Structure formats: C-alpha cells, structure tokens
Amino acid sequence: MSKPKNVILIVADSLRYDSVYNEEADNLLPYISSKAVEFSQARSSGCWTLPATSSIFTGKLPHEHGATSQTRSIDLGLPTLAEHMKEAGYHTHQVTANVATTHIFGLHRGFDSVKKIWEIVPAKFNKLQQFLVLVGKPRLRKKLLSKDAIMHDLSQDMRSSATWLQHTHSDTFKVARDLLKVGNEDGKGTFLFLNLMESHFPYHVAPTFETSVSGIRNKIREVQALFHTVNQTFLKDAKLHVKPDMLKTIRKRQRKSWELLAPSIDAFVKELHQDQDNLVVFLSDHGDNFGEDSWLYHFSNVTDAGTRVPLFWLAPDGTQKKGKVNTAINSKDLYRSLLHAVGRADRSTEPSLLDEPEASIPVLQSYWYNNHGQTLEQFKYNQLCFVEGDTRYLYRKGVWYSAGVAKDGHEPLFERMSSQTDPIEEVVQDAARKRRLQKIVSEFDEFSTKVVGSGDIEHILKEKKV
To answer: Is residue 326 scored above 80 in pLDDT?
Structure first.
C-alpha cells in the first residue's frame, strides 16, 4: 500500500476511558465510530503527559526513554516519531495546548515547527480567573511571591494559562488546517500532532472557566476540591481532602468537558478523513484519577482510571473497514504502527498493532512525584503494572499485587499476592512474552534503583545522555 498523503495524530489530554464510554453518554463520535478500527483495551505507558507522550513519540517505556517524574526529559539518543516522519518525506508540525509536549522536555525534536496555542489565541478570561490559576498552582504561587512577579517573568506562565481557563480547540484546528494547506500547495504530505487541553484538569465545562454546581457554598467546595486535586495535598498528609460528592463532581466535570469537545473532534476528523487519502488517529495520552485508590490527580499512579485510554485508527478512507480490537495493547506501539503505515517498517522490529495486536504488551509505569520536597515517605515508590487477560498485576518495591480490570466504572483495589508468587512465571503462557516481561521488570528495577535508591538524578541523566 502507498503511504498516506497526510498523517494526523490527535490527542485529547487526560481524557479517561470512562468519560468516553459510560451509561449516560450517547455516541458522541458518530463518524469516527463508523470508520475507525477501535482498540477497546488500550493502555498508556504512563499516567501523565510527559511519559505517556514520550512513549508514543519513541515506542519505548518510560524507564527506556527516561522522561519520568524524576528524570523529566527523553533520551537524546532515541529517534522520535517526528524525525522518522521527516525522513519519510513529510512536513512535521506540532500544535499543542500543553507545555509538556514542547522543547522544555525535549518533545519538540523532529518537528519543523511547534505551534504553542497559548501564544496564538487571545486570553478571554477575567482577572479573577487569572488570579485563581496563579494561586492554584504551587509553582506559580512561588513565583507570585518572588521578585519574578516584579520583573514580569510571569508573563509566559500567564499566556500558557489560557489553555487552563478557556476553550482553544477551534483555534488548534484552524492552525492545523492552515499547515495542511501549505503542505498540499507544495505537493508534500504533512505529519501533524495535535494536543487538546479541554479534557485536562480543571476540565473545561464552559468556554471560559466556571464552576459546575449551584449555590455559593457548593461552588466554594468545588474550587477547594480542584485546589486539592491539582496540588495533590494527600501526598503531603495522607488525607483525602475531597469528599465523595465532590469527587463525583470532578468526574462529571471531565464528562461534561468531553460532551462539549467531542462533536468538534468528530467533525474535524470527518473533514480530514472522508474521501481523502489521510491517516487519522484519535486517542487520549492517559487518563486521570478522581479518588481511585485514595489517589488524586494523575502524576504517580497506574490505576485503569489513569492509564486506560480510548484509541481510534482511521486508515485512508476506503482502504480499511471499521472494526474492534479487544486485545489488551499499549498505546506506545502506535509508534511502530505509524512507521509501518508510512513505509518505514524497516525502522521497527515488531509488527503493526493492526496486523498483530497480541504482540503488544500493555505495561504501565509511574514514578513517584516529589511534590516540592513534601511527599511523605510512604508514597516514595515507583510502580510497574502489566495486564494479562482480565487481571492487572502491580509490582511495587519488589512485591506483586493483583486486581481485576476496571469494569462499569468500578475500579477493583489491588491486593497483595503471596511472596512466593511470580505472576509472570505462573500466568504468562507464551515463552517469548514471558522473557520480554521479565526483562522489562529487571530493567525497571535497575532504573528505579539508580533514580530513587541513590537519589542521584544528575547521574542517570548523564548516563542516558539527556
């Protein structure tokens, strides 16, 4: 097959699987659902934007590419998806609403341009909303009370806060159209990566920031719940400050944000895909935690809520029928699948997700978040999880735990397994798969020991040439 004219990869940041699939929601993606190959059991390699996107860009797990909560930047020795696309003859552009996908962490490599949407759209929010962002995020609070505020060094942060406080997806789609038009006019295809923040905290339930409940008291409680969520205060005191009713409110905020965002995504994908020779992929980079396992926010946990993602693959119109793949897969393997699609299979040693999804191993990783030096000792651990059948197996500090796959919005709790139990040895039947998992766990242990055990982050960065 000839390679697609254009390749468009669209990510709804932090969008949970159960925001897309729940009993109350109708099908909000009629075109995508009618045309796509849908991966119903996709998992992200990481539980927040940097490791999750880095895995998609490199085809590697977080301990391999190095972009974790501690090391923070991808290995410069790894070729990126954008670099491969450039070699395949495409223009390469990123249009993003999240600073985590930019040069700050090295995810700009291979792109001809990185369009930061907050530098393009005018701010539509008022000064009170702007102030709420400043005091809500610890890093910005620190700046606000320092000389940086006097020296006006907050200006970039305030511009980027536009994506936290207002809808920007229409602006992103407009920039994307313009970039595709330029590529079409010079007869060259385009690889586009788009990041949309509407489904990310604080979950846009209106064109500009609003609370979602009625009554002054409840509005104050909702703002407090959002504050504790973004600051992960439970890492500092082990208390879940957000009450169950407010956890439901936060969950509803994301579902509402998805209801507002989904029709625009579906229409945009239809515009790019129908009767055209374009490959379009829509997915979430990772999910989010709304109190599951007594956890808030998505930095450091591997629950299904935090790592299970919607994933839709739309091959050039007319070249592939829709379908559903129920095999558990890892979204990092989009890397090799996209390389296959543009004729770069020689750069990948494994088959495409579409050809052999069972070759994908859904391994999920999280790395503890220091939270400005205040994280309690009991939360200072890294985690690895893999999915086999209907069970998730969690590895933490040399101990294995197990839990069922989340179903119907219910997240089963992990229970400790016997110290004599090795789930890889006992549960995994395929010999090659078993060897790969054993190698992954061994390398994860080695990486974690270097980073957490010695505390020498500079050493690991130097070793990985970051």
So the answer is: yes
